[in-house]
Amino acid sequence: MAGITLDDVTKRFGEGGDAVTAVDDVSLDIQDGEFVVFVGPSGSGKSTLMRIVAGLETQSEGDVYIGDALVNQLGPRARDIAMVFQNYALYPNMTVEENMSFGLKMSTDLSKSEINEQVTEAAEMMGIGNLLDNTPGELSGGQQQRVALGRAIVRDPNVFLMDEPLSNLDAKLRTTMRTEINRLQNDLGVTTLYVTHDQTEAMTMGDRLVVLNYGELQQVGTPLECFYRPSNRFVAGFIGSPS
Ligand code: ADP
Ligand code: MG
Fold it and tell me: Where in the numbering of this chain does the ABC transporter domain appear (predicted)?
């Protein structure tokens, strides 16, 4: 388990006049076991921030810590982060079981039977225990999303990063999966950073909400604080109470 600290994190893409500041001087403390939802319009830097925390992108300035360690100095194994993306990114030619065990085979020294045991447990947790021999193409969107989540939890990570994981699902399924992700996070107590542009997800899922615009923090607070006491016009317009 681990908290996450962002210290004056800035990320620029490109040089000189063409440079884009995707993340602009963001500082944030996330507690161990906290569920934090990141919202903001398209292009506000949400995905870039997730990729920086995951160590997939290097910030231009500032420091990112997982627990006491700088992300940039941790190898992938030590980072111990599981990501879930919008487009699932399942391997199409592998079975569900292979999709779920692949990461464990690559990043741990677990035996075959230990891996089997963990995959079965995670699959049952996600309600896909009967789909282990299927390939992703044979599954519905909701089932694929469960596999993606199952693949993330099977690694028993310190941190979940979820980048719009439900945006390809229909409204009904989104509601179900919302509840399920919250239940999962409650059960596992894993620190979770969750990106969405869905107002309902923003208002209902997290302990705290982080509102971004043009890469800058606009407000950090509970969903109710942001809703009833928006810190500026942008927040008010984006998620605030209509009063
Ligand atoms: P969001 O996830 O909130 O939609 P992103 O983090 O994807 O926002 O993007 C933030 C800004 O950074 C956007 O202006 C985007 O065009 C730019 N950006 C993101 N990734 C790259 C990249 N690899 N190269 C250049 N610009 C990028
Ligand atoms: Mg994005």
Answer: 4-239
* Rounded-to-integer distance, Cα 183 and Cα 197, Å: 21
- Read off the pLDDT of residues 22-39 as tens digits, 9 standing for 90 and up: 999 999 999 999 999 999
Centre of ligand 2 to C-alpha 195, Å, is 8
Cβ burial of 181 (10 Å; 0-12, 13-18, 19+) is: buried
- Residue ID of nearest Cα to ligand 1 atom 13: 43
Q: Which residues pair with 6 in a beta bridge?
A: 28, 64
pLDDT for 70 beyond 80 = yes
Phi, psi of 23 (to 5 degrees): -130, 125
**Residue 92 CB neighbours (<10 A):** 8
The Cα–Cα gap between 194 and 36 comes to 6
Sheet holding 191-195, edge to edge: 81-84, 159-163, 191-195, 35-39, 208-213, 216-221
- Contact between 163 and 46 under an 8 Å Cβ cutoff? The reply is yes
